[in-house]
């Protein structure tokens, strides 16, 4: 098997659609054996035999042990953890309930931390352990109604920086990818409106919306030897959108 991830064992969460599916398929095409993880009832069907699947609620108490345990049982090791799963939320802070706040943090931030914590001993044992996490350009920006979402994504960036510092002596890198306006399942309803899609396309200096593969290629770089000297970084994949902010 050849490719930039030849012989590697990887986990990709949020893999049923969008960025996660594109990343799982790209990682496999580049030689990795992949555990694709998403919530129960999602479309975890792949044509590539090197992609195994696991349906689990990442916010559940035993999710980290289920995910890491399945990867180790299937592959015997773990080299790459790509935390991509996330949820959107929109509520003005004055009207936001504790339940809505917690639901966003539980998936977008707490689940990322818990998976990383469970994976760390195995990534340290890898010759080139990699942690990649999907944050958002909203980790550095904001908009009305995004208090919970922005806080969660800023938290992901802070977590990756700290893990990079703590794990660097073991050769493990930790980085965040910050997507901009990308056509995914999360944005499908909004971008189905040509007017909305056109507005967001024009925000990019490349004058187009991003596609899941655009982000997957950044994740691949960070997961491979090509990104071996990059750690603690938050890399925007936004078509230059944030140049105007």
Characterise the protein shown here.
The chain has 245 residues and is α/β, with parallel strands linked by helices. It has a single domain (9-237), classed as 3-Layer(aba) Sandwich (Rossmann fold). It has seven helices and seven strands, in the order E-H-E-E-H-E-H-E-H-E-H-H-H-E. The protein has helices at residues 18-29, 63-75, 98-125, 147-167, 188-191, 194-203, 212-223, and strands spanning 9-13, 33-38, 51-55, 80-83, 130-134, 173-179, 234-237. It starts with 8 loop residues before the first strand and ends in an 8-residue tail after the last strand. The mean pLDDT is 95.
> Would you list the SSEs in sequence order as H and E?
EHEEHEHEHEHHHE
Q: Major sheet: order of its strands? A: 3-2-1-4-5-6-7
Task: Please state the oligomeric state of the protein chains shown.
Answer: single chain
CATH class: Alpha Beta
Average predicted local confidence, pLDDT: 95
Sheet-strand content, in percent, reads 5-15%
Tally of alpha and pi helices = 7
Named at the architecture level, the CATH assignment is 3-Layer(aba) Sandwich
The 3D shape can be described as globular
What percentage of residues falls in helices of 4 or more residues? 40-55%
Structural class category:
alpha/beta
**Spans with pLDDT under 50 lasting ≥5 residues?**
none
User: Strand count, sense and closure of the main sheet?
Assistant: 7 strands, parallel
Radius of gyration: 17 Å
CATH homologous superfamily title: NAD(P)-binding Rossmann-like Domain
Distance between the termini: 43 Å
Record field, number of beta strands:
7
Number of domains: 1
CATH topology: Rossmann fold
